[in-house]
Amino acid sequence: MKLYNTLSKKVEEFKALQEDLKQVKIYACGPTVYDYTHIGHLRKYVMDDILVRVLRHLGYEVKHVQNITDVGHLTSDSDEGEDKMEKGARKYGQTAWEVARKFEAYFWYSMDLMGVARPTLSCRATEHIQSQLEMVLDLEKKGFTYLIEDDGVYFDTAKLNSYGELSGHDPRLATRESRLGEVTGKRNPSDFALWKFEKTGEERQMVWPSPWHPRSFPGWHIECSAMSIEHLGEQLDIHTGGIDHIAVHHANEIAQSETFTGHKPFAKFWVHHNFLRVDGEKMSKSLGNFYTIDDVLKKGFTPQALRLLFLQSHYRSEQNFTWSSLQASQSAFDKLLQFYLEIKENRSSAALVDEAQAQKFTSDFFKALENDLNTAEALAVMWQMLKSDLDNTWKYRLLLEFDRVLGLGLASMTKMEQKANLELKDLSEELQELFREREQARQSKDFAKADQIRKQFAQAGYKLTDQKDTVLIESL
Ligand code: AMP
Ligand code: ZN
Questions:
Q1: If you take atom 15 of ligand 1, which residue's CA is the nearest one?
Q2: Looking at residue 81, what is its pLDDT?
Q3: Is there a contact between 291 and 283 (Cβ–Cβ < 8 Å)?
């Protein structure tokens, strides 16, 4: 398989560190769980999922470790500013711990809907405080750190010749003025916090004792070095993350890990995902373009349509999300499901012919994916195959085989799901009237009546599911 490596800035032939054992160790930077998972995150983790599925298809045993950042990630890449968890706690009026668990659960809920396979291991930063502390103590012993009083323990990047190799430019050359939120006392602009101390007068919710301060907490970068080494060993085959992590977070992970292990290359391949933009803009709450999977469902789209939309662009290109692009993808997905159900129904038991043609489609499909995960081209081959004159039995077999990697979940789909998410206007006038009656009952908290009407809908062949701001209508 060919894969682009940010470290060499080239598409390289992928060979695992333990190629003979056919084992691949992947570490993926996980979410910071201080707010809702949005569709930009979904794109990143769907693309990680594709990578894992392709490697498994190639016969590798993949160990996929992904962290949950539930402490220490400041609101910017600099070492000043508020901790994201504490910020989330204030915003939602809950404790930092409650916020962390709530949004971690929302992350998994979103991943499951999107058909993203769970990592082999998911690890929380707050449950690895000791290993992070031990790593910082080791770096301190090796002479790579310095202390800034009332602030924290810092990594001295001037002690490493290779710092910043990943981004292809030496961040130590950045002028002090170009780095906002600078900490006084830092020796070099690129130095970063390994461990932070609670400030006087501050009442932080997530603090631990350390040799330097009784109320302190890890810097954000150290968790990925400590947890990946603890769970996967000193060297990784692949490390993934968004492109926003290249210059700072991943540069710092490399500095920490390689200093800790005595300069063993930390990751062989660095895979970085480009961003999802919405209507050409960065996603943000203030622009009103911050969408979650629930927003997608509320508008009547299925998660599979969103997944298919992601697969239509390359992971290294920026993708621009619009509702009309999702609409087009929904139509394509509905058509695909229709194809699948038809060929499933109309399979023949006759002996299979056309084997050569089937093999050609299979080889073209996987060749595209093995070419730096060209999902768009793989989809094009899938459509060609479905429109070809191959017999239905072959089409059915191939489509299921392709979907084991595409992850659209066709195998478990039935007609019911095809007709999911009906709109009110799709119902008869009587049912529409009954639906409105039920809404009134719900508003006046007459839940007995609402349930009674729900039963009437079931008798008429429809399932109603109450969601936060809407009611999902599905046909039974
Ligand atoms: P965070 O929770 O901000 O640490 O993000 C988790 C992962 O999602 C990181 O690898 C980010 O680079 C990635 N990510 C965040 N926003 C977007 C976006 N709009 N599009 C694609 N990936 C994103
Ligand atoms: Zn990380």
A1: 41
A2: 74
A3: yes
Alpha helices in 196-250 (DSSP H): 222-232
Rounded CA-CA distance 447/35 in Å is 31
Measured in degrees and rounded to the nearest 5, phi and psi for residue 45 equal: -80, -25
Using the atom order of ligand 1, give the atom closest to the CA of residue 31. Answer: 2
Q: Is 88 in the pocket of ligand 1 (CB under 6 A)?
A: no
Residue written as token pair 């490493």: 160
User: Is the distance from the beta carbon of residue 29 to the nearest atom of ligand 1 less than 6 Å?
Assistant: yes
Judged against a pLDDT cut of 50, whether residue 294 lies above it is answered with: yes
- What is the share, in percent, of the chain residues with pLDDT greater than 90? 74
Q: Are 73 and 83 in contact (CB under 8 A)?
A: yes
Q: Sign of torsion, CA 177 180 184 189? A: negative
DSSP string for residues in 274-286: PPEEETTB---TT
> Distance of alpha carbon 131 from its chain centroid, rounded?
25
Residues 6+ apart with CB under 8 A from 105: none
pTM: 0.87
Domains assigned to the chain: 2-273 (3.40.50.620), 278-418 (1.10.730), 424-475 (no CATH)
Are the C-beta atoms of residues 406 and 49 closer than 8 Å to each other?
no
